[in-house]
Each structure stands twice: as structure tokens, then as C-alpha cells.
């Protein structure tokens, strides 16, 4: 589609990176399920390896995967995307490219569990030091910066606390120090938030969540704002090998087309459920960016186009009451992950964030009573009735 950059967000979601197949007229992007591509002759092969456009080998680029990369790059306003086998392959692509011997990273303390754990357990072997701070106050990020800080890595809204971080403020802090800012935009998706436009250098997604949205694929994506950073990331990514399979790319392309529709519905359900929970006597606290009681409600209004569809809350009676809740709900499945068409509920302290030492977990506000719910697209009344029934059991 011509001038895709100038079209509306929904048009971009559906059309960016896609084209009618010139050979057959196929409207859906075909799956180029091939590991390798034949060259016309020796000179053509040499030209492709010399940097001219042309497919060589699927780990180094594939038309189906590229369609998805172009789609995300357009949605995030970056110069290009790199599709990864999983969200964690995307996270590590960024870490491995920007961090090494004698470097330091400042990161949000309540990161996605493995994004934090791997910095604590594996990267010290390569001489990387990390500081985890409550980035919801940018001053904490500024205070943690050092001369050898190469990366500021934030997640907003963060998992599972739903704390938000001011992307523009962190970009300024990172750039003053010559560091790059990377933002994990998984919770918001490009439908609700565009960190590159707010000043970040790199944005990444676990496309397993809202982007694919159908709980049937794991996938990741990194989008860079400028070509030099993209080239550095690409070199590391292609050689470490966490690249995406074309069939996987096709599934995500199919999923993303309904992103706006799913997100609108899930968000509508979330807002209603959040108000219901906030007013329920058995609920001791709730955090959701769409509630005015969220400590950073204003920031959310400023940098996001909507509050998303994930919330965390505590029930009176702590962990045991929380267990009664998650063991007895009928609609949300007791499962980790989020952003699917169906609702999911989980207990971070014993599941996704169990690998983080207790003291650090509490420091990051991931308390034992915290229950996280990712709200799906079911009939709202069913969700509320289900929750009401179980809260009455507590
Ligand atoms: C799920 C998730 C990841 C990791 O993605 P995978 O696809 O599971 O590897 C990273 N960041 C956030 C915020 C996530 O929710």
C-alpha cells in the first residue's frame, strides 16, 4: 500500500509490510517455508552475500518473516524490525548487542521475571553489572547511572506491578550519559503506546502476548529507531540464531490483524472489571492504569492511548485467599502469559517471579497476595459473575 506511513493506525496494523503476491494475486502473505534460496548464478550469489538485496538463507532473512518485521517497524515508527523466536530471544538480542565486559545496565526492578533473572544469573559471567531501580520515579534511574552504563532497560507498564515509567524522562537521562534506552512494550502493544516516538532507541515485544493474541504462538520482535543500531542488533541476532521461523511469522501476521478489535474489547472488559474489584469489600488493593487510584494515572493518560488489559490486585486474607480465588474461577484459566483472546489468571510470587529472591521480590512490590489477571474478550457479565461468586467464597 502506498504512503502507509500516513495512514491511520488500524490501516497500518492490517496493511503495513503486506502486499498482493505478484506471482499469484494472493491477498494473504504466503508462507515461504524454505530454509534456503537458489541464486540465478555465481555472480548473483556473490552479490547477495556482498550486501545487495536478495534472500540467501532463512536465518538471514525470509519474505514472510520480513513482512512481519516491516509491519511492526511501521507500527512502532522505527527504521526496521528483527523478528525473534521468542520474546526472550528478543530481550537477549538487545542485551548481547549492547552489553559486554565492563558495562552496566540500569533496569526497572519489576521486570518480566526472566528478563531480570538472566541479568542477575548469567550476564555477570560476561562482566556485566546491573542495577535494578523503581523506574516509576525517573530520579532513581538518574541516580543509578554510571560512566560505564550503556543501556537503560525499562518495562512500562511493568509486569506484574503495572507501575509505569516515564519513557521521555528516561530517554533524556540515558542520552545524557551516552547510553541507549530500550523499552519492553509488551503490556501496551503498539496499539496503545509507541516508545520510539517518546524518545526510546529500541522497543521490543513478546509477540506471544497481545500482538499475536491467540495463545498459540511464542514470538518476539525488536524494532530500532536508527539504522546504525539496527545493523548492530542484526549482526548479533543472525549469528546467535534466535531468529523466527516463517510459519511462526505467518501465524503472528494473522493474529495481529485483529489487534485493535481485541484490544478495544479486552480494555472495555478490563475497565469494568477494575471498577467492580475496586469497590468489592474482599479486595484490599488493585492496580490498573485505567483507574484514577493508580499512582501514575496521569502519566498513563499522557504516554498511552489506553490502559491495556492487565491488572493486579490483592484479596483480603493474603496468599490463602488468593489461592481460593485462582483455584475456583471458571472463566480465566490458571495460566501464565497474557494478551490472549481468553482471560488468564496467575500468582506471580509462586509462578512467574518465583525465581527472584524473596527480599528483592518484596522490594519490587511483588507481594505474596498479588494476583494478576489478564482480561480477555469474553462476555463481560460472565467475567464479573464468576469473580463475584468466588469472592463470596473467601
Ligand atoms: C512474556 C514476556 C516476555 C518474554 O516473552 P516470551 O515470548 O515468553 O519469550 C518478555 N517481556 C514481557 C513483558 C512479557 O510479558
Plain-language structure description:
This protein has 394 residues and is of the alpha/beta class. The chain folds into two domains: 8-256, Type I PLP-dependent aspartate aminotransferase-like (Major domain) (Aspartate Aminotransferase, domain 2), CATH 3.40.640.10; 259-391, Alpha-Beta Complex (Aspartate Aminotransferase, domain 1). It has helices at 9-15, 42-49, 63-76, 87-98, 113-121, 138-144, 167-176, 189-192, 227-240, 246-256, 259-278, 297-303, 318-328, 358-363, 380-393, and strands at residues 80-84, 103-108, 128-133, 149-155, 180-184, 202-206, 220-224, 283-287, 310-315, 333-334, 344-346, 370-374. The longest helix is centred in the C-terminal third of the chain and has 20 residues, at 259-278. The protein is globular. The N and C termini lie far apart (55 Å). The structure holds pyridoxal-5'-phosphate.
Q: What structural class do the secondary elements suggest? A: alpha/beta
CATH class of the largest domain: Alpha Beta
Q: Strand sequence of the main sheet, in spatial order?
A: 1-7-6-5-4-2-3
Radius of gyration: 21 Å
Largest sheet: 7 strands, mixed
How is the secondary structure organized here?
Elements (H helix, E strand, L loop, with lengths): L8 H7 L26 H8 L13 H14 L3 E5 L2 H12 L4 E6 L4 H9 L6 E6 L4 H7 L4 E7 L11 H10 L3 E5 L4 H4 L9 E5 L13 E5 L2 H14 L5 H11 L2 H20 L4 E5 L9 H7 L6 E6 L2 H11 L4 E2 L9 E3 L11 H6 L6 E5 L5 H14 L1
Pyridoxal-5'-phosphate binds next to helix 4.
Amino acid at each position: 500500500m502506498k504512503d502507509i506511513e500516513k495512514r491511520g493506525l488500524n490501516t497500518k496494523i492490517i496493511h503495513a509490510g503486506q502486499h498482493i503476491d505478484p506471482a499469484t494475486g494472493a491477498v494473504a502473505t504466503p508462507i515461504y517455508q524454505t530454509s534456503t534460496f537458489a541464486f540465478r548464478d555465481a555472480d548473483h550469489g556473490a552479490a547477495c552475500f556482498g550486501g545487495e538485496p536478495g534472500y540467501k538463507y532463512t536465518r538471514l532473512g525470509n519474505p514472510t518473516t520480513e513482512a512481519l518485521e516491516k509491519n511492526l517497524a511501521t507500527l512502532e515508527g522505527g527504521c526496521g524490525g528483527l523478528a525473534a523466536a521468542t520474546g526472550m530471544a528478543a530481550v537477549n538480542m538487545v542485551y548481547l548487542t549492547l552489553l559486554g565486559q565492563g558495562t552496566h545496565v540500569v533496569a526497572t526492578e519489576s521486570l518480566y521475571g526472566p528478563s531480570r533473572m538472566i541479568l542477575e544469573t548469567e550476564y555477570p559471567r560476561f562482566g556485566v553489572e546491573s542495577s535494578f531501580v523503581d523506574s516509576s520515579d525517573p530520579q532513581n534511574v538518574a541516580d543509578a547511572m554510571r560512566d560505564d552504563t550503556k543501556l537503560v532497560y525499562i518495562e512500562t507498564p511493568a509486569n506484574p506491578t503495572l507501575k509505569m515509567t516515564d519513557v521521555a524522562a528516561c530517554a533524556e537521562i540515558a542520552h545524557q550519559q551516552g547510553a541507549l534506552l530500550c523499552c519492553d512494550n509488551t503490556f501496551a502493544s503498539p496499539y496503545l503506546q509507541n516508545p520510539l516516538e517518546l524518545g526510546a532507541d529500541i522497543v521490543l515485544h513478546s509477540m506471544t502476548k497481545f500482538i499475536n493474541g491467540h495463545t498459540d504462538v511464542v514470538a518476539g520482535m525488536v524494532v530500532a529507531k536508527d539504522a546504525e543500531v539496527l545493523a548492530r542488533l542484526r549482526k548479533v541476532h543472525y549469528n546467535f540464531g534466535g531468529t523466527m521461523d516463517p510459519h511462526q511469522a505467518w501465524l503472528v501476521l494473522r493474529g495481529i490483524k485483529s489487534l485493535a478489535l481485541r484490544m478495544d474489547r479486552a480494555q472495555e472488559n478490563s475497565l469494568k472489571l477494575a471498577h467492580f474489584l475496586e469497590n468489592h469489600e474482599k479486595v484490599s488493593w488493585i492496580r490498573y492504569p485505567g483507574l484514577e487510584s493508580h499512582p501514575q494515572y496521569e502519566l498513563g493518560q499522557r504516554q498511552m492511548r489506553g490502559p491495556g488489559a492487565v491488572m493486579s490486585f490483592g484479596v483480603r486474607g493474603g496468599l490463602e485467599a488468593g489461592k481460593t480465588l485462582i483455584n475456583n474461577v471458571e472463566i480465566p484459566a490458571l495460566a501464565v502469559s497474557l494478551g490472549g483472546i481468553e482471560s488468564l489468571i496467575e500468582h506471580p510470587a509462586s509462578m512467574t517471579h518465583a525465581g527472584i529472591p524473596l527480599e528483592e521480590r518484596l522490594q519490587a512490590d511483588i507481594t505474596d497476595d498479588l494476583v494478576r489477571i489478564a482480561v480477555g474478550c469474553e462476555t463481560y457479565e460472565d467475567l464479573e459473575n464468576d469473580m463475584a461468586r468466588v469472592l463470596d467464597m473467601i
